[in-house]
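Researcher: I'm comparing several assemblies side by side, and this is the next one on my list. It has 648 residues spread over two chains. Same procedure as the others: predict the full complex and return the structure.
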Amino acid sequence: MKLAEVGEFGLIRRIAEKIPAHRSVVLGIGDDAAGILPSAGCITLITSDMLLEGVHFDLSFSDPISLGRKSLAVNLSDLAAMGALPRQFLLSLGLPRSIEVEFIDRFMEGVLATARSYGAILVGGDTCASKSGLVISITALGEQRPERVLKRSAARVGDLVFVTGTLGDAAAGLELLQRGVREGRLVDRQLAPEPRVAAGAALADAGFVHAMIDVSDGLVSDLGHICELSGVGAKVEVELLPLSEEYRRVCGADPYPLALSGGEDYELLFTAAPGQEKNVLALMQRLGLQTSIIGEITDGKGVELFRPDGSPYSPAKSGFDHFG
Amino acid sequence: MKLAEVGEFGLIRRIAEKIPAHRSVVLGIGDDAAGILPSAGCITLITSDMLLEGVHFDLSFSDPISLGRKSLAVNLSDLAAMGALPRQFLLSLGLPRSIEVEFIDRFMEGVLATARSYGAILVGGDTCASKSGLVISITALGEQRPERVLKRSAARVGDLVFVTGTLGDAAAGLELLQRGVREGRLVDRQLAPEPRVAAGAALADAGFVHAMIDVSDGLVSDLGHICELSGVGAKVEVELLPLSEEYRRVCGADPYPLALSGGEDYELLFTAAPGQEKNVLALMQRLGLQTSIIGEITDGKGVELFRPDGSPYSPAKSGFDHFG
């Protein structure tokens, strides 16, 4: 069935009837705006990410369910990086007139599955025709007590640098997809990343983390944001970078460039005072999330990379600039 | 200067340095998410609208400043329709790689001028490359006391139907632009609509309005939303539709079809009990905003249109469905 047969308001009805009620939503889908209220003592954290066909995803290898999951996941990862719990989201879609309603249904199945997993309620958005491919824009809202919110600007000289999970998987997965591979853990990490929502909130609540960000642009770029906003430097020992077995099998002779600059891993990168490493690692172990110490915060400038023998390491490229 | 020379982070810095601080913003641009808090006793109202090149705007006749103004204005109009005062907004842009930075600067000049006029602070968003034209997605946040929020679902049988300003101007302006006309009041109404923010909040605070919506899809379509969600009908007398002199000069023999179905006027359409018309009209007169009574709410279904002699009137088309 083509979208034109269902119409804009038919599409909105199809979506709206699947949305549960929730106490954080004072006024849901159906009015000019939704009404929300954070829990007592909390502020609302809010973030937006846009995904464009041909830039952020390729429909020749993104299935609609995974695309729906990822579209929301990348927004929830931004909330996780602040230590916030997701509460609501708005979804705006620019849809080619020829798109099949079944594609939208499967896309929404992915969006709403991720929403259920992490406790986010769809409260609004927009739908419109697109003359230029599928356009997805999501705004996600979460909440946290203001004194617990974790910012990029709070790293201190001497802090240890931690990262969850493994690095480079999503970038390696993209390369595999472009070469025709359609399954495996690396491909899954690219197509359906998991936002570290529980870990982000637990780290914020625990109180021993200074600065936090999610690894979306690439480790060097994102750690660089922490350095710039905190007025500090960082050194990273490349042999400490957490690399998966699957990644090591495909990454070639030098495993570090993609792990340092490949984006979209959506892991948490954070700093805490030395002496807190046992607390951090014990907390993350309880959550079942591998966490590694990869370096420390210095009184220098920018991110410096070192080899095991103490000599400087220079990667081929650093970070992802959308217009570079 | 091309965007590629400035880069993504350079662009964000260019924008961020122009944003003022405000007490409603706990945490502004620069982190993974912004932090906001409504005033005591208020809820947050939130709405998103997407504008796509070739669908919502045509760069051959939209100048960048007006486009910036309109992109935010259509979102603020949704807040106005709830009776909410604007507080913050997020802006996501998909930008063709070849776009001139000067275009973006002028576009932002328009966005931020409208933001200043209505008290909205830019707190975040996203920027990315687009392979298919300019993509604009805005999420606007406002606030109001929950008991004062005006919904589509609160119209009651016997209510009078009011509309601010004049109808059909924006649709007529679009037709003129497509025929090569580049100035005049109708063209201005299409390119740079004014959201009825002060009037929306004043009507909510006054307490005598039942249901409200903004006229974005067209009068019949938007009044139809009120009817559907309130479980009522409405009758409108076409000769009572407020039409501007400029509109009457260009609308041809039958002035009503475009006034009934042309969208984008961004006027407020609302209902109030009979007996309140003096209060409504006095309030709107104090705000300097022409307001007309065009019909009433019935116990029927849908919107019925009548001529002065009491006979039914049938317009050529009703409302704007993006996929119809």
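Model: For your comparison table: The first strand of chain A starts at residue 25 and ends at 27.
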